[in-house]
Design brief:
Helices cover 31% and strands 30% of the residues. The protein is of the alpha+beta class. The chain folds into 2 domains: 103 residues, 2-Layer Sandwich (Alpha-Beta Plaits), CATH 3.30.70.1030; 103 residues, 2-Layer Sandwich (Alpha-Beta Plaits), CATH 3.30.70. Strands 1, 2, 3, 4, 5, 6, 7, 8 and 9 form a 9-stranded antiparallel sheet that branches. α1 packs antiparallel against α2. The model has no long low-confidence stretch (mean pLDDT 93).
Amino acid sequence: MTEGSNGIYVHVLALGVAPEWRRRGDAERAAEMAAFCDAERASGENGVGSLVFTCVGLEPGVDLVLWRTSDSVDALEVSAARLLASGLGRWMTVAHSFLGRTGPSQYAVKPTDQDRGLTGEGAGRYLIVYPFTKASEWYLQSREARQGVMNEHMRVGRGYPQVRQALAYSFGLDDQDFIVAYETDDLPAFGELVRELRGTESRRSTVRDTPILLAVRRSLEELGGLLGVAA
């Protein structure tokens, strides 16, 4: 999806399957999984992009994480409603939902490929995504002071080229300030990046950066296999 001057909306939708569904018959579960996959494919036909990640057993109450994009919040709502009303979706609960909008960086003059994660190009195996909120004191600092802190933050990040980042702004749209997402094939390197960032000045302004959702890039058909649905 092409990003316009006003950016695109990003919706992170984390869904959990009711335990009762796993005890249904094989034929019922297969039919409901197929109906859910059909509804997801229909979302793409209606202008909603979606990347699929699984989280079975990794996060309490979460089995599926969808990174969804559209130039319309209305389209995101309609497609989500269709998903939750179709087959397996009727047995799902929304565990987490984060909404934001993409836009130009306030601090990076010229974003690099490393700052364009979740674009579908050079996709990583793993997704790490969380809501992020800064303290009021951060926004009351001068632009120059904030730029200096972020320069250090970005310098550390550049030392881990195997980790790509995506950022969406949630001001006025959701409880958090930002949606922060990373994709990588190298989880140990990502852990080292986070550890190093904990020691930078930017950490002082952090109010919230949880829950952290770790998920694996797969297809919905692979999700069915993880949930015990025969191919």
